[in-house]
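Here we describe the complex-level prediction in full. Unlike the single-chain runs in Section 2.1, the two entities below were treated as one system.
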Amino acid sequence: MHPAPSVIVFSTISGLGFGLMLFMGLGLPNVSGWVAASFATLALGLAVIGLLASTFHLANPKNAIYAFSQWKTSWLSREGILAVLTLGVFFIYAALWAFMDNRIPALGYVAALMAMGTVFTTSMIYTQIKAVPRWNMASTPLLFLLYASAGGALLSNQMTPALMLLGLVAAVQALAWMQGDTALERSGSSMETATGLGNIGKVRLVEKPHSGENYLLHEMVYVVGRKHAAKLRVLALLLGAILPAALILLTNVNHVVVVVILLSHLIGLFAQRWLFFAQAEHVVGLYYGAR
Amino acid sequence: MTQLPTSTEKKLGLVIDLDTCVGCHACVISCKGWNTTAYGAPLSDMDAYGGDPSGTFLNRVHTFEAKQEGCASQTVHFPKSCLHCEDAPCVPVCPTGASYKREEDGIVLVNEDKCMGCGLCAWACPYGARELDQMAGVMKKCTLCVDRIYNDNLPEEDRIPSCVRTCPAGARHFGDFADPESNVSKLVAERGGMDLMPEQGTKPVNKYLPPRPKADVNGTQAPALEAQSEEITGFLGWLDRTLEKI
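The structure predicted for the assembly as a whole is:
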């Protein structure tokens, strides 16, 4: 799949924002006044920037308002609705906390739950797609939730939960990559089932239907993005989870170290999300003799 | 609405005969010709006369080769367009309600006045049947020529999809799969019509007729020609060897 920058920024940055909302919903960090206001602004800002980035992916954004209408069947519609509601509930909760010095824990729990719900709906946009076997796995929502909450723990300076979450991120991510590498084979789809010619013999493409590129190849069979996959995997694990965890364990975590941890995690996260798209094989590739 | 109908009155669709198709691409051209002037936004081309041309098509013809070990290969031309699936995965994913499947005849359509061009339906389709028009920014797909098949202004013989009307080989057939007596239902029963990627669970309405078994794929091939010598003889050979040495 095409790793469009708008979608990478959307899913990573909004995930971080909603992750921070999770911890703030639980009353962490234990601050008040303008410090609480700055944390809340960061959470809302990240979520809004992410959501705005997603609109750059639309070819016809003037109809975007209709996206809130199909919640009965569409995960993308559900995500849009839940995201907006979460922003509203969290805004009220954070405003009461920061400006009235009246943090309502019950409202916080609701906001935390809704924030994780939003990340879950985001992940389901990808997980639901059976035509991309690498996404169509239980580990996809789990990873989105883990990345968001690990990032939220780092942003809210909760280093003990962050350490545990980073460990889980690394472990689940490694397993998901291993499982994902055989997902297309296990899906049962092949050039033989795609063409129905399997009982004649092994199928190969003789001629593409068109001499140049087209939307399908650019969007769904974007194989050039996989060029540095092995290196990027190492980078994603190292910078996303291992280095931040090591810094938490081995250093006296001061403000400078926190910035280094956050930057490292962010770069690792971008690498991970690039691979999430670039390495995802769409079965339509089979009609082009590609995977 | 993006909820799929539990059943449709008719199941209109195509039968594509892989035995008969000659791969002439006439259906591709006639589809583009009709649909660029008909339903919704035109099918745009980008850089049409430049070095990197691309464009929106609702129907494309691939060419495959199937070969068993020790047998002659078979070349199969393979037209591919929307299969108007009963369990169309492209419809429920649509966030705006632009994609829908009609209850009366099962045709899957896009309402371009609601499409925001997110491309999620194209991701959901295993067959690559949907293409986002790069100029209009809306999703385009086969309409089964909904503006021909019910069009009283056209002579009766033209009230079939443009690709079917055009096919010079008679490899494309249009009809109602819900009626067991229809031409398409009979063809499927007679010739063992098949689904593409049945494991994807989409229940395609369009069916493909497999190539008929060939009598002579096992061993009766013409003997292979003897390999030509690459060595050049005579004066040119001498010249070649001499120049090689210099």
